[in-house]
Amino acid sequence: MLVNCCRMHLHRGGLVLLPGGSRSISTAFHFYQNKQLELYAAKDAQRLTLRQLVFFGRSMNEDRIIKSANYVRTELPVRIAHRLRDMQTLPYVVVNQESVSDVYEAYWSAFDRFRRYPPLTTLAENDEFCRFLRGLLDEHKSVIPNLSLGLSLSSPYLAPERLDSFMRRMLVSRISRRVLAEHHIALSRYLTAKRNGETVSDDRVGIIHLGLRVKESIEKCARFLRKRPYDADGDAIEGAAADAPWSDVVIDGHLDTKFSYIQAHLEYIVFELLKNSFRATRLRHPTFRQLPPIQITIVAGENDVALRISDQGGGLLTPEIRSPSDQFSFSHIRNPVRLDVSRLGALRRISSSGRGMTATVDEQVSSWQSKSDCEDPQQNAGVNPHPRIGIGLPMSNIFATYFGGSLELVSLDGYGTDVYLRLPKLGTNLEGIELW
Ligand code: COI
User: Fold this and answer.
1) Ligand 1 in contact with 174 (CB < 6 A)?
2) ipTM reported for the complex, 2 dp
3) Ligand 1 mean position to 74 CA, how many Å?
4) Predicted confidence (pLDDT) at residue 237 exceeds the cutoff of 70
5) Which atom of ligand 1 is nearest to the CA of 174?
6) Strands 208-213 and 249-253, how do they pair?
7) What pLDDT, on a 0 to 100 scale, did the predictor assign at position 233?
8) Residue 434 counted as domain residue
9) Which of 213, 287, 379, 410 is 20 to 30 A (C-alpha) from 269?
10) 410 domain-assigned
11) Does one domain contain both 198 and 212?
């Protein structure tokens, strides 16, 4: 655990945790380490749009892939340094939570490894770099449950606004780093396949799907949920899973809608929203053999693609959780269900099972070159599959707003919930991360 193996000191009014330090490591070394962090943290993030990612990734060749690798190599440590600085300003009682200090330690180690990574000049070096990125992506899979657990437990010590704005910066930045890393790996995989004379499909550039069919993504998420009833039932309807009825998902509106987007992001959001709707509908009508349908309307607007998901699950019906900031909050002061014993227990199990789960080098070699998409929308979005731990809605909101979209819930109390998701379709919005 970090707090046992690191030295801590106060820095600019916040706590500095210096990982990897034993008692023999000198103060001068810590000073040097922190100076390195400051150098990177002082730089602004170079934010990108979806369109830039597509333009750059088109007509990939050796020269471009090396440029892309060096951009990722220099940009990721800047983005990580910003968040390390952010963590350093948290109160001691918060960073002292084991799950928070695990995240700090993982980020410090990643920062240090990026900072030392030499410039890339050849394709062979890029293969090695992709393997390095894949390893980090896998290593960081437990970051979300860890942060969520640590911050839920820290709710008494952080004002809800501060807690939520901190979580938002951490999670949006994480999404952005994973997008850059996954995009680079996907472009490298494409180039390797092309050079090997394999047939490559042109429906994607990197991780961006150029004609993502919204209706197909919805159907895929519904199919996947039916195969894994535990996701929809979770803790609340134990035993009902095997033969419980399912709502039909009825899709209408502009059924042919397609747009350029990151498939994993759209499907994570749809999966989480559908999961909530299936569950609420079942809970609301426990004796029905035929459940009311979930209605999804797709609208292709001039600038966005919009979805309305309407269920008859009774509405939100939680008097304490009313405003959007409460629904999307990670603080138990705003959102008391975060303190549910079952949720905290599940979070604890997931966060501790993530410890030490690093793929071996051999596994990483094969996995960066093989196609990384699987059926599971959570896994594809970089979130380890998990039971109900209360992060689906806040994470969906973060995915939706990352490129300037929005997510809104309207409760028709006693009847159902309407969710409005809007995603920009022109790809011209910059990533919604902080510059610092
Ligand atoms: C994360 O998943 O949190 C990352 O920062 C991944 C990145 C280092 C490749």
Assistant:
1) yes
2) 0.96
3) 14
4) no
5) 3
6) unpaired
7) 53
8) no
9) 287
10) yes
11) no
Q: What is the model's pLDDT at position 71? A: 97
Contact between 393 and 255 (Cβ < 8 Å): no
- Count Cβ neighbours within 10 Å for each residue of 295-329 and write b for 16 or more, e otherwise: bbbbbbeeebbbbbbbbbbbbbeeeebeeeebbbb
Domain of residue 356: give its range. 208-364+383-424
Closest residue by Cα to atom 2, ligand 1, is 140
* pLDDT of amino acid 133: 97
- pTM of the entire structure? 0.85
Q: 291 CB under 6 A from ligand 1?
A: no
Confirm or reject: Cβ of 178 under 6 Å from ligand 1: yes
What is the tens place of the pLDDT at every residue in 30-86? 666 788 999 999 999 999 999 999 999 998 999 999 999 999 999 999 999 999 999
Which among 89, 112, 147 has a CA at the least distance from the CA of 19?
112
Q: How far is the CA of 178 from the centre of ligand 1 (A)?
A: 5
pLDDT in tens, 168-204: 999 999 999 999 999 999 999 999 999 999 988 889 9
Q: Measured in angstroms, how far is the CA atom of residue 27 from the centroid of ligand 1?
A: 28
Query: Do both 43 and 101 map to the same domain?
Result: yes
